[in-house]
TrEMBL record:
Gene3D superfamilies named in the record: 3.30.420.40, 3.40.367.20
Listed name of the protein: Phosphotransferase
PROSITE patterns attached to this UniProt entry: HEXOKINASE_2
Source species of the chain: Rhodamnia argentea
Pathway per the UniProt entry: Carbohydrate metabolism; hexose metabolism; Carbohydrate degradation
Amino acid sequence: MGRIGVGAMAVVGLVAVAAVAVAGVAVGRSVRSRRRWRRVLGVLRELEDACETPVGRLRQVVDAMAVEMHAGLASEGGSKLKMLLTFVDTLPNGNEKGIYYALDLGGTNFRVLQVQLEGRRSSIFPPEVEQQPIPQHLMTSTREDLFDFIAASLKEFVERKEVSFGYSPEKRRELGFTVSFPVKQTSVSSGILIRWTKGFAIHDMVGKDIAESLQLALARNGLNMRVVALVNDTVGTLALGHYHDPDTVAAVIIGTGTNACYVERTDAIIKCQGLVTTSGLMVRFKFTVVNMEWGSFWSSHLPRTSYDIDLDAESPNPNEQGFEKMISGMYLGEIVRRVILRMSQESDIFGASLSNLSIPFILRTPLMAAMHEDNSPDLREVDEKWREMLEVPEVPKKARKVIVKVCDIVTRRAARLAAAGIVGILKKIGRDGGSITGGRSRGDARMRRSVVAIEGGLYTSYTMFREYLLEALREILGEDDARHVILKVTEDGSGLGAALLAAASHSSTPPPNTVDSVQMP
Ligand code: BGC
């Protein structure tokens, strides 16, 4: 063999060795990547197991909710559920007349409304509404700063709206003030802020009368307006729901935050019997509205994961609003982010740098909903949203599938727990048909039509959430009984409902339609 032949063989040999080495590296890489992928799937499986909500567990949550409601009504601090007396014993019935204003303070925006009522149900629409963002710095400043800003905007709004019929500074106006935070009411138009939720932190407001703080700011800003009703957004929703349908017995908000209120027998509010008998008001009526503040509900039956525990510990209000942190729009995206961050520590398949994914609340719930509901075969929407949010290159399809699955697990758990909460209320007021008493059907219990007014973007705009909730309701109650429970979306109860309650509570003669007219068992 010549030199060329020997040289050629040597080259061939080298190439072969290199090829084997390259193949070896590639095999090694692929083995490692398969191993990492398996770990991602392991994290997914663990999450799925920890978030499981079989119907048996949901029924335990139902029972726990009903038990906690009893405890919260029995004594102050008897339960994590606040069960706040609202002093609302008169619900609007359609006979209200006049022009009323409402101010809705509950999230990153506040809204002002002017509502004209003409004594007929249909005549309340459409109200004049204006919405404004609350500047970020005011959410953590002083009550004077916040309310001066709101009062000045309200004054401008009133001047603009009344210009057509001659604005007069002397005229006194009536306002329904919706505060979507826990408030311990001292009357239908006054109450002490217990604490902030949803990212607000104006420390000098806690423990003070929130209606009075607004009233003072209105005076400072030269607006002649009186707060005649102070209401939680759930109570406004109940008022509007009842206005349209007298079978409405409860209201639920599932949006940025979550909460519920319902119509309770006055004599069941044991902790307030002193107040109930001295306030005269309550003596006249057998039923009144209770603001549960169910966001703070807690039970060992809730399926809690390490992600929930970390989220809570790092939140500004640890050990508070436990139910809300598993259910509401403020937190769902954040739980998903935490899970995917954990997965990204195992594999780089999500394309996101860890520092990017480490930004708390970077994944907002509406974005999560858009990814979850992506029906395109290659999950293009997931890819787009993910890339936009984290500024990363395309993510492979299998990673997109995992993202969707995580959204699904977190949303499904939230929706099913919310359903259990609703059935808990129905059970407390004896409207669950007895089908869940001790997990057995009570043949003798007759199911009555019960309407639950419902609002909040998570329920109204997130189809998968809504479907999971309704499915769980049917599972817990059984198809037959579930037919008697109607979840009715009201539109803008927190605004309109407050104006209606202002009208109802301002009316001098007791209106014929009171909470008594809600048929209770
Ligand atoms: C507040 C409730 C409110 C709910 C819905 C919660 O964070 O504590 O008062 O009703 O959000 O807005």
